[in-house]
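Hey team,

Filing this mostly as a record. A colleague (T.K.) asked me to run one chain through the structure pipeline before their review meeting, and I want the input and output archived in the tracker in case anyone asks later how it was produced. No errors, nothing strange. Just documentation.

Input sequence:
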Amino acid sequence: MKSIFRKHHIEKSFSYIWLIIGIVIFFYGLFLKKNIVSSAQHLGLTFNNWDITLRLMNDMYLIIYFITPLTLFISAKVILESFNQQILIRLGSYKNWIYYSLFRFWTVFFPLLFVWVLLSVFIIIGFPQSWEWSSLSAIDGYGNPLFQLAENFRFPLIVLLEQILLIILAISFMHIVLSAIYALTKKSMFLIVINISVFLGGIISFKMLPPKLSALFPSTYLSIAKIFNVYGSVNLLFIFFLIIVLASILMLINTGKIKKNINKDSILRNLPLVIYLVLCLTGLIVTSYSYSNLSVWDICLVFLGGVSADNFSYVSFFSYSIVYFGFIYLIQLFFSKEIDQIGYYKIIRYRSLYKWFWSWMKVLIFKIILFLSLLIVLTLVTVVIVTGKFNFQITLIPTTLFEILYHYFINGFLQISFYVLILFIVTWVSKESIHGVVLLSIFMVLMFPGINFTGLIPVGLNSFVYLFNSSPFFLTNILLIMNLLVCSIIYYLFKKSLKI
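Output structure:
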């Protein structure tokens, strides 16, 4: 009876909370409604239902001072209540716990979103009804946040739907980041400090910082009107960016079984990956600022351009080394572990070295494709965010977009595959991981000017600068031949090794 009474009491308390939230949003909507009528009468313009609905959904005062702290409070409450040893053991991994936490979060947060949207539609009572923009929405100034939306969207209903989608993606992303941070640190005070910082940062960015810097704070991404104010456009790549980062974080979270020392082990195991991501992002941001006068694609070509014997710069050299050789180094860490663990058990399990080789090689093939896809998407989106430009013309290299994409994906895949295979040979023969690092150093030396002047040494051939003098299809032939040669060497080594 006590548990039933307690459950009933909690449900009743939550109903009161949503009632209070609804009252706050409703009376704030009446305040906006009065301002809209007053502005329209003063300017002699018409107004309709979309003026109040979209303003209430995009009002930054409501978002920063009411929606954001409520969201952060609900997120922290769900994280702290759902994180315990029994649940972790039952779910089996931290990634599963983040899925579970996200589901729990939305069961609590959905009523808030529902009340917000419902009242934004309900409050139109007494306003003229229309499916089009009003003349008040199309005017610039007078505190009208809908001006740029009315210029860029034909129907306001599309804006409302995209606004709801944006809120769902942004808030889901924010909760996953907070969940991942808490899973690694397990410190409630650290989580609370982050939430307070996000809330205060939103206030500071709204009042004191220029629009470009407000892009650093999550509250900006809860309003489609604010995004237009910051970037001047809403590009589909932005929403795609949220989805990709969401998927990336889910994939990067430790998927192993729960262990007592998972906190320390996870940090140490993921430290090289974190350092790699920080270096890549830092290099990309610096490049974007340094070449902000160029188009989006041109900045991407500079960052991922690489070097050749005829076209060499230290900026491009270090960018290529960090991005590609850094990725290969992460694979080297996998090689060392995989080769060290091979023994009679694995030999009996796979019954063939070729089957064992293919069992993890197909995983690496998928990761290479995923790496190239995420790299180009995140590079484009980061350049857009940093520069605020949407100019995608190609002026630095005299070639077509098709050849650039072909060279990036096909030759990039073949080049990374060559690095992986030759690295495997060195690690297999020497059984020493340090030799893999030495090999990467040799690769870097071979990219210096005057060494690979013929372009036949298969190092750095996926650099965009090679498109100045070579066809991407010619480079494909070189990389294919070299990959086949390396595969034949692996076949010979396996044939000489222990046979089952």
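Quick notes for T.K.: Confidence is low (pLDDT under 50) at residues 1-13, 253-264. Residues 262-500 form one domain.
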